[in-house]
Design goal:
367 residues, Deoxyhypusine Synthase, three-stranded antiparallel sheet, 11 strands, globular
Length: 367
């Protein structure tokens, strides 16, 4: 009697072949990341390279955790922006602040996580796990931001995309003067027209310095509600032009939810007909059962309208350290894909918000 092979056994066979010397990242991922979270990272790399980087997909990236002090801003985020693989960003303010250390000529050092922090305090050394730097790095970076934000173009109310775009121009100028190339997320986003948002603008040293400037009598004001509508407009614009929306999420927290909530803002609040994001790729070490995953799994996000239920197969969550996954993912897609044309969404913010507003007005009229 002929045995019927189950449909569940159609996947590629597990092959325990020895890893050759000098193997490329691309070959390592495709051939040797076969199961568990290595398998999920392989699926993430392939989803990003094969589907999310098609020309009609608008890709948003969220950044949580202290990634840029580890050098991942310049090594990973900057190449992804320059190659057109990221179209808009939501980041913690801390990642943007610490990324600027490198751009103004400051140094951070590899160290140990097993040091006596009381001695570090006496020595004036700051520790971020196993990253060490002098306390003066903070003071000098604070002074850089304060001196810049006191300039006339900052004396108004604005969203964080405009704030970061203006800051990016000054960071780019400082890099040019110091002969530093391609290190800064803000400078690269400025050059490439990639809008960068911070969902909690007061929750970082950049926000703290803006607060000091306000006490000094300056008129800089940050309105995060502008960001809510702009980010929703970016997603709606992608869909109304017949395209797709993809999310690349590192960590969780407020940036993840801020990026995902664009669809509930469109559907639930503004009552505009939409289905949800099309691609969801997350790297995280958090768990959903503790309430710490921040926006939860893709399947749970479907229940909120954040992810299109028909696109659930095009979602991947890899439960591992972002500092491990990000260089592998970046290297993989830089090998697999040619650069995409820059969408320069920053330059189109007003146009996209106008479309959002018009569609919202239509919903009001239908009431």
């Amino acid at each position: 009697m002929k045995h019927h092979k189950s449909k569940f056994l159609r996947g590629r066979p597990i092959v325990p072949a020895p890893i050759p010397k000098r193997i490329s990242v691309e070959a390592l991922v495709d051939s040797y990341f076969q199961a568990y979270n290595a398998g999920r990272l392989r699926e993430a790399c392939q989803l990003y390279a094969k589907k999310m980087l098609e020309p009609n997909v608008t890709v948003g990236m969220s950044l949580t955790g202290a990634l840029t002090p580890a050098g991942l801003g310049g090594s990973c985020v900057v190449p992804l922006i320059k190659n057109g693989f990221v179209d808009w960003i939501v980041s913690t303010g801390a990642n943007l602040y610490h990324d600027t250390h490198f751009s103004i000529g400051k140094s951070l050092h590899q160290g140990s996580p097993f040091l006596d922090d009381r001695l570090l305090r006496k020595e004036g050394v700051i520790r971020i796990y196993d990253i060490l730097f002098d306390y003066s790095v903070l003071l000098d970076t604070d002074e850089f931001f304060r001196s810049v934000i006191r300039n006339e173009e900052f004396q108004k109310e604005m969203g964080t995309a405009e704030l970061h775009h203006l800051l990016g121009r000054y960071v780019a100028e400082r890099e040019k003067v110091l002969g530093i190339r391609n290190s800064s997320v803000l400078a690269t986003a400025y050059r490439c027209g990639v809008p960068v948002y911070t969902s909690s603008p007061g929750d970082s040293s950049i926000g703290m310095n803006i607060a000091e400037i306000e006490l000094s009598g300056y008129a800089t004001r940050i309105d995060p509600l502008l960001d809510v509508n702009e980010t929703a407009a970016i997603v709606l614009d992608a869909k109304r032009k017949g395209g797709l929306s993809g999310l690349l999420i590192f960590g969780g927290g407020s940036p993840k939810n801020f990026m995902l909530q664009t669809e509930p803002q469109i559907q639930e609040v503004l009552k505009i007909k939409e289905k949800g994001h099309d691609f969801f790729l997350q790297i995280t070490d958090a768990r959903p059962d503790t309430g710490g995953l921040s926006g939860a799994t893709p399947s749970e996000a479907v229940s909120w309208g954040k992810v299109d239920p028909e696109k659930l197969p095009d979602t991947v969550v890899a439960y591992l350290d972002s500092t491990v996954a990000m260089p592998i993912l970046t290297s993989y897609v830089l090998t697999k894909r040619r650069p995409r044309k820059l969408k320069r969404l920053y330059d189109r913010r007003k146009e996209m918000v106008d479309v959002l507003r018009r569609e919202y007005v239509k919903t009001l009229r239908r009431k």
